[in-house]
Amino acid sequence: MRRLTEMRPGGKAGLFTSDLSVNEFLLVREAGFRPLGLVLGSSIYHVGFQWRQWTKNQELDRLSQAMYHARELAMSRMETEADVLGADGIVAVRLEIEFKEFGTDLAEFIAVGTAVKAEEPGEWRTNAGKPFTSDLSGQDFWTLVQAGYAPLGMVMGTCVYHIAHQRFRQVVGNFGKNVEIPQYTEALYDARELAMSRMQAEAEQLEAEGIVGVQLLSLPHQWGGQTTEFFAIGTAVKPLRADHHIAKPQLVLPLTD
What protein family is recorded (predicted)? Predict the structure, then answer.
C-alpha cells in the first residue's frame, strides 16, 4: 500500500511502472491515457478432488467453482491496487496459473496489468464503479478507442470437464478405422458451450454490446488426459457517446532547414 500510495499522481515517487512494450506505451498515450503503475493480484489456492465416473461425460462443478473463485480473487485484488492509484482502468491484463512444487494441488493464480488514467474525464469505469479491465494489447486498445468503443471489463467462463473413457469393446472395434467418436465430440462440445455461455452471462451483467478478442483455451493442468478445463476469456465493450472526445497528445516535430 505504501508503494502504491507513493506512485499516485503527485506522490513521493513521481514515476510509473508498466509491462507495456515501448510501442504499446506510445499507443496507450496516443489513445488519451496515462500509465500509472503496474498492478497485480495473487491467490494461492488449494484445488480439491472430485469423484468422477469412469465411463460418463460430466462437468466437475466443484473444480469449476475452485478455478473460477481463485481467478476472481486475483482479479479483485488487482482492481483494488488500481483503485488505490486512482486509475480509470487496467490494460494488457494477463491471467496466469502456476502449480507449485510444494504441493501438487496448490496453484498460484496471478493477475497483472498496467493501471491507466484518462487525460480527459469520461465514463470509463464499469456500472459497478470499478476500473475497467482489458486483456487487449496496447495496439488493440488504441484501435478500439479510435473506433469509438470503450472496454468495460474482462469476462470469463470456465468449465472443468471429465471426458468418458472408451470401453474396451469400443477401442477394439474402432482399431484401424476412420470413425468419429461421438462421446468425445459431445463432451468437448458441451464443455466449450458451458464456458462460452458463462462468459456471455458476465458480459450481459456489465450491459456490454459485445465481446472482442475472445480466446477459448483447453487447459489440462494436473488432472490427466481425460479431465481438462475449458476456459473462455475476452473483453466486453460498449460504444462511446457520440459527444465524447478522446484527448490525443500532439506530436511536435523539430524544425529542420
Answer: Belongs to the UPF0145 family.
